[in-house]
């Protein structure tokens, strides 16, 4: 088997609530020729900086900087690509070496990042409809983006005490796909259990969230988007230890990923949930 080893192995993934636990974005960089590049300019590494209140003092700002050197090895101004959280997506604009754009959702930001030569980005632990029109993210000082085929930089963490969905719901997300988080392999849901603190109007959801299912014109309104997804589980959140799914291998439901496990409530303050799946080899 490719990617997952033993097809009969049960994989357990953990969802927790915390500012440094569940990154929303994966990103890496491949040094390769760029459109209209000059033979006298050598591109080097790329870095990422995240400022929670970088855009107009209130919205998240993601800045990719690509280092450059001239033919003598002297440093030139970085080429910078800055994506601001905003109420609507705005395409790249500007002239070298400074470009700007805006993103309403995580999908918007991923699409914009993937338009930068050499950058590859994808969603981690958040739905593609997650809003970036917010300042409730954790700062990241300028950090080198790993070069392909090295591992991805996992980044864009939410400030979970302030970041809300659907107006007033604190939330936690876990993305799961096979063989990797972004992949659409089939799997069987074996189990889901856990505890939570703060369960007022609480909800536990599992739904499909494949970027290929979204058009550029989709609505990012949470209530609208959840209705468009393939929902595999919708349960009331309970604070005590609870088995939301408890199946054996033979009668477990087969689903297609990637999926999001989402737990939310108006007063959620702590959470540990364990999701168990097995690769579907039928």
Describe the structure.
The chain has about 280 residues and is mostly beta strands. It has helices at about 105-115, 220-230, and strands at about 10-15, 25-30, 40-55, 60-70, 75-85, 90-95, 100-105, 120-125, 140-145, 155, 165, 170-175, 185-195, 205-210, 230-235, 240-245, 255, 260-265, 270-280. The protein has two domains: about 1-20 and about 160-280, Jelly Rolls (Sandwich); about 25-155, no CATH class. Mean pLDDT is about 85; it is low at about 215-225.
- CATH level 3 topology of the largest domain: Jelly Rolls
Tally of helical runs: 2
Mean pLDDT: 87
* Number of strand segments: 19
The helicity comes to under 10%
Q: What structural category do the secondary elements indicate? A: mainly beta
CATH architecture of the largest domain: Sandwich
- Cα-atom Rg, whole angstroms? 20 Å
**Sequence stretches where pLDDT stays below 50 over 5 or more residues:** 217-223
Shape descriptor:
globular
Largest sheet: 6 strands, mixed
Q: What's the number of domains? A: 2
Termini Cα gap? 13 Å
Question: How would you classify the quaternary structure?
Answer: single chain
**How much β-strand is present in the residues?**
over 45%
The CATH class of the largest domain is: Mainly Beta
Spatial strand arrangement across the major sheet: 6-7-5-4-3-9
Summarize the helix and strand pattern as letters. Answer: EEEEEEEHEEEEEEEHEEEEE
Structure at a glance:
The chain is mostly beta strands. It contains 2 helices and 19 strands.
